[in-house]
Recover the amino acids of this structure.
C-alpha cells in the first residue's frame, strides 16, 4: 500500500466514521420528533382558546427582536449537537448547542453558495446568487463605460434585503461583521443603521463589544442584529494552544492562515493536494479550536444578552454561509466546489415561547428559507415586491411539527474567481447533481448511500442525471441571468488578490 | 375437351395467375390509416399531461424532397397518395425549414436540435463529437430500443457520428431501379423485421428510416412512367437523363421540356417512396403498433429544378430549405395545418415533449407540442440556415452561406454578397431587393448577429474525421460536389 493510498484510505475511513455518527444522531432524534406534540407554542388567535389540544399550535413571536448569528465557514459536520460531540467526544460548539437545545436544529440545511460573498446575500434576500447578482469580488471593468462594482445596490437596485424590510417595519438594525466577503463594499450595509466592518476577516472579539454596546444604546427599541465573525474561517488565525491536537503531530503544518491559503492555492493549481491522515487530523483539531474560541466569545455575548433580558423576546437564528474542505475531495478551503462539506451548514432557530427542546429536523431546507421563516414567525406579511422576490419558503410548518418534510429542492451556485463556475441541485431524496459550466462536466451522487460524494453515478444512472440536469437548467433559465456564459469581470479584486 | 383446349385453358390460367402475381401495382393501393381501434382495447395515449408516454417513435426521411412536391403541400399531380393520407391524419407544418442546404449538417441539426455552427458538422471532415447528446441517446436513457436503416449515402450519418445512440445503424442501399423498382425497398423489409423483433421486447422503439432514392441522377427512366411525356425532351436524351447530375449540363441550354422530363422522373421515384411509406404504415397498423406510435415525416433538404438556372441542393433558397414536415400522433384528431415558421431543430423538443420526456436544455429548437395538443402556440419569428463548403480546406471558407428568414423577408448571404427577397410575393426568390429595402436588410442583419451572439456560446468541441481519397472519388463520381 502506498503512502498516498494509505492517507486517502485513512481520511476516507475517518470521514465515513464521522458521517456514520451524524447518521446515528439522525436516527436517535427521530424519537424526539415523535414528542413534538409536547412543546408549547405561543398561540396567536383573536378568539379565546378553550381547548388548546385540538387547535393547531402556531409558533409566532410577533413582537420579538431578531438576532441572526453567523459562524463563518462552519461545516455542519463539526457541530456538536449534529453528531460531532458524540463522534469525537469534543465539545467544540457549546454556544450553538445551548441555543439548539432550547430550539430547533436542521440537520440538512443547504447554503446557496460555497463562499461568503454570494452566500449571505442569499440569506438576506431569499434569492439565488444569480438573482441578487452579488457573485464575485471583482470590479467589473468590462469596458471603458461600464465600471460597475460587484455591489448589490448597483447590480440589483430593485431588490430588498432582510434589514431594509425590517427597518421599514420599525426595527432598529445593526450589523457587526468581520468585513471581507460580507463588507459594505458589496452592498451588505443595505438597510442597516449601523454596519461594522472595520477588521478584515475579523473575529467575534471585534463584533461582540460593539454589538453589546449598540444593544445597550438602543435599549427598549425593537432590533434586528446581524452578528458575525470569521473565527472558524481559514483566514482567521488565533494564538493557538493546540488543545485538540491530542496526538503527536510531526507534520509540517501549524494551522496558520498562510498555510491554509497555500494549500488552497496548490489544490486549485494542481486540482489536488497530498496530505497525510495526521495532517488532516491536525487541521481538524485546529479548526475545532477556532470553532470553540468563537463559541466562547458567543457565550460571553449571550450572557450579557440574557442579562439585558432579551432571551425571552428575541428570535435567534444561527447558521453559517458555507463549510470548509479538509481534504474530503483532495483539496483545501472553500469556494471552488459544491460538495456537502462546503454547502451543508448548521441552521438553528430559537423562538421564545416555542420550546423546541433541541428537536432535530431532518427535512432538507435551504438558507434562502431563513427570511420567509423569520417573517412568518414575526407574523409580518411581506409586501408584494418582497413576496415575489423570495425564492424560499417558511419552515414554520416543520417547527410546528405539522410536517416532517417539506420536500424542498436545494440549488447551489458558485462563480469562484475566474477559476470555476458550477451549478448544483440537491433533491430531498438524496440525489445530487453538479454541472460545471466551463467544461460541461457532470456529477451525480446518491447522498443517502454515498454521503462523502466519492462515486460519480452519471454513467450508471443516466436517467436520473438527465432529469436532474434538465430540472437544474429549467431553474437556472428562470433566474433572469445568462446561464451559459459567466460574467466577464475584471481581475481587479475588491479584497484579496487572487483572480484565476 | 380436347388436349389442345386443355392446354389453352392452362396457358390462360397461368398467364392470368402470372399477371396477378407480377402485377407491379398490386401492392400500391392508397391506404386508409384511420386506426381500427377494437372496442375495449383503446388506450388513452395522451395522458393528463398531454404526453404519449412510452409510445414508439418513427422518423421517416425522404432525402432531397421539396415540400411542394406533395399533394398535401399543393402539388397538382397525384404522386403521393399515402403521404397525403398521412397528412390528412396528422399535423402539417406548411412552413418547415431545414438548417442547411445539404444532408449532413441538416441531419446533425435534426438529431441534436443544434444549429450547424453549434454542432460543428459543417463539412465532411468533421464529425459529431461524443460529448453531444442526440435524440437517440436520450431515448435510450428512457429505455427505447433504437434502430436506423439508412441509405448509406455518405452524408446519412454513419461516417460522421450520427449513429450515436443507435443500437442498430444499418446502411442499406436503395432499390435496384433497373429490376425491382416496384418492389418494397430492402430498407423497409429490414425495418419491418426489426419492428417485429422489438414487439417481442415489449419496450418502445425509435426507428429512423432514411431514403436517398430521389437524389440525382433521377434515371434510369422507367418505360411505364405515367408522368413522362417523352415527346417533351429538349436537348437531353434519355441516356443523358440517366446520369443527370453532371455539372457540364448546367451550361447547356436546357428547355422547359427537359425540366418537365426531370420532374417526371423525380416524381416517379417519389411515387415509389410513397408506396414504401404506405407499406410501412399499413404494416404498423396491421401489427397493432400504429396506435401507439408517433410518426414524423420530413426531408433534410429540397431540390432545385432550374428555378435559378441549375439543379441540385447546396443553396439556401426556399426550394431547398423549405421541407415537408408531418407529425402523426395516435388517437388524436389530426388534419390540422399551420403556416407558422418551424425549423427541423424543433422536431426533437417536440417529440420529446409529446413522449413525456424532459427536453434537453442545450437544444436550440422550440417545441411545437402545444400546437399538436391544440393549445396556444406560436412558431418562430425567424428561421436560420447556414452552409459551409462540403470539403472545406481553407479557413474561413470563401463559399460560406447563411440565410435568415421571417414570414415575409429573407436575407441570403453567399460568397460575401447579400440578396434580399420578399418571400411572400416572390416565393421563388427571383427578384433581389437588397438595394431597394435597406431597412429590411439592416433588420435581418441584426437578427443574424443577435442569433450568432446567443448561439455561439453553445458550440461543441470540434471533432475531425478523415475520408479516404477513394471515398471522395466515389462521391464525385456519384455526382456529389
Amino acid at each position: 500500500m502506498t503512502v498516498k493510498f494509505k492517507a486517502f484510505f485513512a481520511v476516507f475511513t475517518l470521514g465515513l466514521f464521522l458521517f456514520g455518527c451524524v447518521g446515528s444522531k439522525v436516527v436517535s432524534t427521530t424519537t424526539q420528533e415523535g414528542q413534538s406534540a409536547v412543546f408549547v407554542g405561543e398561540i396567536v388567535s383573536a378568539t379565546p382558546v378553550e381547548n388548546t389540544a385540538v387547535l393547531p399550535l402556531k409558533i409566532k413571536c410577533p413582537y420579538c427582536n431578531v438576532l441572526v448569528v453567523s459562524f463563518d465557514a462552519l461545516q455542519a459536520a463539526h457541530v456538536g449537537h449534529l453528531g460531532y460531540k458524540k463522534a469525537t467526544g469534543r465539545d467544540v460548539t457549546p454556544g450553538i448547542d445551548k441555543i439548539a437545545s432550547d430550539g430547533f436544529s436542521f440537520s440538512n440545511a443547504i447554503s446557496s453558495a460555497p463562499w461568503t460573498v454570494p452566500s449571505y446575500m442569499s440569506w438576506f434576500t431569499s434569492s439565488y446568487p444569480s438573482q441578487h447578482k452579488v457573485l464575485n469580488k471583482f470590479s467589473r471593468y468590462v469596458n471603458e463605460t461600464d465600471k460597475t462594482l460587484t455591489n448589490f445596490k448597483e447590480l440589483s437596485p430593485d431588490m430588498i434585503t432582510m434589514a431594509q424590510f425590517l427597518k421599514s417595519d420599525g426595527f432598529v438594525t445593526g450589523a457587526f461583521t468581520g468585513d471581507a466577503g460580507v463588507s459594505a463594499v458589496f452592498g451588505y450595509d443595505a438597510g442597516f443603521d449601523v454596519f461594522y466592518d472595520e477588521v478584515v476577516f475579523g473575529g467575534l472579539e471585534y463584533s461582540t463589544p460593539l454589538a453589546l454596546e449598540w444593544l445597550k444604546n438602543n435599549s427598549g427599541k425593537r432590533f434586528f442584529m446581524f452578528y458575525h465573525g470569521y473565527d472558524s474561517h481559514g483566514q482567521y488565525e488565533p494564538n493557538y494552544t493546540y488543545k485538540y491536537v491530542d496526538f503527536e503531530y510531526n507534520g509540517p503544518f501549524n494551522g496558520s492562515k498562510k498555510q491554509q491559503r497555500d494549500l488552497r492555492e496548490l489544490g486549485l493549481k494542481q486540482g489536488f493536494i497530498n496530505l497525510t491522515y495526521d495532517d488532516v487530523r491536525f487541521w481538524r483539531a485546529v479548526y475545532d479550536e477556532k470553532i470553540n474560541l468563537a463559541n466562547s466569545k458567543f457565550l460571553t455575548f449571550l450572557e450579557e444578552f440574557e442579562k439585558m433580558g432579551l432571551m425571552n423576546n428575541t428570535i435567534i437564528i444561527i447558521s453559517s454561509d458555507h463549510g470548509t474542505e479538509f481534504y474530503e475531495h483532495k483539496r483545501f478551503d472553500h469556494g471552488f466546489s459544491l460538495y456537502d462539506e462546503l454547502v451543508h451548514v448548521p441552521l438553528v432557530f430559537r423562538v421564545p415561547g416555542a420550546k423546541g427542546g433541541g428537536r432535530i429536523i431532518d427535512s432538507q431546507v435551504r438558507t434562502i428559507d431563513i427570511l420567509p421563516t423569520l417573517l412568518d414567525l414575526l407574523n409580518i406579511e411581506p409586501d408584494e415586491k418582497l413576496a415575489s422576490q423570495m425564492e424560499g419558503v417558511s419552515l414554520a410548518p416543520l417547527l410546528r411539527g405539522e410536517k416532517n418534510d417539506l420536500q424542498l429542492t436545494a440549488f447551489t451556485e458558485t462563480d469562484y474567481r475566474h477559476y470555476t463556475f458550477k451549478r448544483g441541485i440537491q433533491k430531498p431524496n438524496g440525489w445530487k447533481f453538479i454541472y460545471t459550466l466551463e467544461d460541461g462536466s457532470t456529477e451525480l451522487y446518491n447522498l443517502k448511500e454515498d454521503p462523502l460524494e466519492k462515486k460519480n453515478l452519471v454513467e450508471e444512472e443516466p436517467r436520473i442525471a438527465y432529469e436532474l440536469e434538465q430540472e437544474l437548467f429549467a431553474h437556472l433559465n428562470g433566474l433572469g441571468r445568462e446561464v451559459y456564459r459567466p460574467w466577464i469581470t475584471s481581475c481587479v479584486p475588491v479584497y484579496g488578490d487572487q483572480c484565476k | 375437351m380436347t388436349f389442345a383446349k386443355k392446354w389453352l385453358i392452362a396457358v390462360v390460367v397461368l398467364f392470368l395467375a402470372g399477371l396477378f402475381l407480377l402485377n407491379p401495382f398490386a401492392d400500391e393501393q392508397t391506404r386508409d390509416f384511420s386506426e381500427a381501434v377494437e372496442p375495449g382495447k383503446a388506450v388513452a395515449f395522451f395522458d393528463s399531461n398531454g404526453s404519449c408516454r412510452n409510445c414508439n417513435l418513427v422518423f421517416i426521411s425522404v432525402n432531397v424532397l421539396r415540400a411542394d412536391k406533395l399533394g398535401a403541400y399543393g402539388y397538382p399531380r397525384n404522386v403521393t397518395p399515402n403521404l397525403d393520407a398521412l397528412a390528412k391524419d396528422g399535423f402539417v407544418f406548411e412552413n418547415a425549414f431545414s438548417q442547411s442546404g445539404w444532408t449532413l449538417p441538416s441531419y446533425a441539426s435534426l438529431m441534436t436540435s443544434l444549429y450547424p455552427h453549434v454542432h460543428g458538422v459543417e463539412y465532411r471532415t468533421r464529425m459529431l463529437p461524443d460529448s453531444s447528446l442526440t435524440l437517440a441517446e436520450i431515448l435510450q436513457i428512457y429505455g427505447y430500443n433504437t434502430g436506423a436503416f439508412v441509405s448509406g449515402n455518405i452524408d446519412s450519418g454513419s461516417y460522421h457520428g450520427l449513429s450515436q445512440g443507435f443500437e442498430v445503424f444499418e446502411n442499406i442501399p436503395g432499390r435496384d431501379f433497373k429490376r425491382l423498382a416496384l418492389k418494397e425497398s430492402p430498407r423497409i423489409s429490414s425495418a419491418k423485421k426489426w419492428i417485429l423483433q422489438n414487439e417481442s421486447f415489449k419496450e418502445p422503439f425509435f426507428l429512423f428510416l432514411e431514403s436517398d432514392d430521389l437524389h440525382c441522377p433521377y434515371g434510369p427512366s422507367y418505360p411505364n412512367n405515367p408522368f413522362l411525356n417523352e415527346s417533351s425532351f429538349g436537348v437531353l436524351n434519355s441516356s443523358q437523363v440517366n446520369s443527370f447530375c453532371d455539372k457540364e449540363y448546367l451550361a447547356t441550354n436546357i428547355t422547359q421540356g427537359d425540366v418537365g422530363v426531370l420532374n417526371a422522373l423525380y416524381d416517379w421515384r417519389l411515387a415509389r417512396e410513397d408506396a414504401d411509406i404506405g407499406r410501412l404504415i399499413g404494416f404498423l397498423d396491421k401489427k397493432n403498433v400504429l396506435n401507439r406510435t408517433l410518426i414524423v415525416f420530413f426531408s433534410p433538404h429540397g431540390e432545385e429544378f432550374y428555378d435559378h438556372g441549375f439543379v441540385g441542393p447546396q443553396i439556401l433558397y426556399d426550394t431547398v430549405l423549405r421541407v415537408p414536415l408531418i407529425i402523426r400522433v395516435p388517437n388524436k384528431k389530426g388534419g390540422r395545418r399551420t403556416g407558422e415558421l418551424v425549423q427541423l431543430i424543433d422536431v426533437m423538443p417536440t417529440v420529446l415533449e409529446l413522449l413525456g420526456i424532459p427536453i434537453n436544455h442545450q437544444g436550440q429548437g422550440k417545441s411545437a407540442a402545444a400546437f399538436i395538443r391544440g393549445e396556444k402556440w406560436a412558431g418562430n419569428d425567424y428561421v436560420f440556415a447556414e452552409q459551409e463548403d462540403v470539403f472545406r480546406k481553407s479557413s474561413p471558407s470563401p463559399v460560406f452561406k447563411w440565410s435568415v428568414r421571417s414570414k415575409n423577408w429573407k436575407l441570403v448571404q453567399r460568397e460575401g454578397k447579400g440578396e434580399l427577397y420578399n418571400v411572400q410575393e416572390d416565393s421563388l426568390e427571383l427578384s433581389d431587393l437588397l438595394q431597394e429595402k435597406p431597412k429590411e436588410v439592416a433588420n435581418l442583419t441584426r437578427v443574424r448577429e443577435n442569433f450568432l451572439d446567443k448561439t455561439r456560446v453553445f458550440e461543441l468541441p470540434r471533432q475531425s474525421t478523415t475520408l479516404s481519397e477513394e471515398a471522395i472519388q466515389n462521391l464525385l463520381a456519384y455526382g456529389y460536389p
The radius of gyration of chain A is 22 Å. Chain A touches chain B at residues 440, 462-463, 466-467, 469-471, 473-474, 477, 484-485 (CB under 8 Å). The longest strand of chain A covers residues 65-71.
